[in-house]
Amino acid sequence: MLSLLDYPSYYRVLGFPIPTARDKIFADLENEEFIVRNDAGGWGITNLGALMIAVDLTEFRQLAKRAVRVIQYRGDGRLDGIQERAFSKGYAISHEEVVQFVMAIIPKEEVIDGTIRHNVVSFPEIAVRELTANMMVHQALDISGTSPMVEVFDGRIEFSNAGAPLVEIGRIVDTVPQSRNEAMAGFMHKCGICEERGSGYDKIVTATSSQNLLAPRVENQSDKFTKATIYSKIPFDLTSKEDRVRTCYMQACLASVTANALTNADVRNLFALEGNAKVKASRVIKDTVDAGLIKPVDPDTAPRYMRYVPFWA
User: Fold this and answer.
1) Does 187 share its domain with 295?
2) pTM
3) 43-80 pLDDT, tens digit each
4) Residue (of 187, 146, 167, 177) closest to 51 by Cα position
5) Are both 75 and 221 inside the same structural domain?
6) Integer Cα distance of 144 and 259 in angstroms
7) Can you tell me the distance from the alpha carbon of 135 to that of 238, in angstroms, rounded to the nearest whole number?
8) Is residue 80 part of a domain?
9) By three-state DSSP, how is residue 226 classified?
10) Which residue range(s) make up the domain with 207?
11) CA nearest 96: which of 141, 53, 133, 148?
């Protein structure tokens, strides 16, 4: 049994030394509900134990398809795949490996700061980290034949998992979180991998906006799958109206949960607008108001002092 569970990594991710006594290891794993005593007096590995710290998920017939897959494509379509890799270790162990692999293969931009050259990645690592954890923890385990998947394109990264979103997509920043797999979420939180209090999307939107990126797009695909997409930097004039409205709304949500409101200056900073920036920002705000997603705090305020909150605030 211990050959199937990576118990050394279990202690490593928790920051504890590996016990020298086997009985202590068994007691710890039983306390986590990773193993249970069976009627024959021996031990059995639970699905939770395998999903969290398995050496190889393919050794467990019912969980073999749960290994995370990462696929890299050339360009922005699926016709030309460059490489594919499966991470078959338990999620508490493989999460960091998946994140580092994705960060290693995403496009990088060379930026010159004075006389020093820096390679700047196209996507914020915190967003990759949070969305990877989300697709692991929130997948619907009763839907068979599918695995959590990360697809890396030149201009975007898509994170997909089985199961529809558990909260309304438009309220994903501020809604109290729900989890399909509370035991998984609890242990991943214990390891410092994901949040139980629901600040994951706050972090994602903060990270993308700080790099002047479009807000993530979350989709409910036929009530069977959830797909979250983050985008690399796109010039403002090449963005779509839908992208601008979604990004403006998400920023208003983020401002609202921190007891603030959205201003024209915030939108200018969000999109790194230059040249006639105030007019462009006003157009984005108007489109978002017209979409029914944000509203003015005080409609009678002078335009230059206008502040906005989400429609639900």
Assistant:
1) no
2) 0.92
3) 999 999 999 999 999 999 999 999 999 999 999 999 99
4) 187
5) yes
6) 42
7) 29
8) yes
9) strand
10) 66-231
11) 133
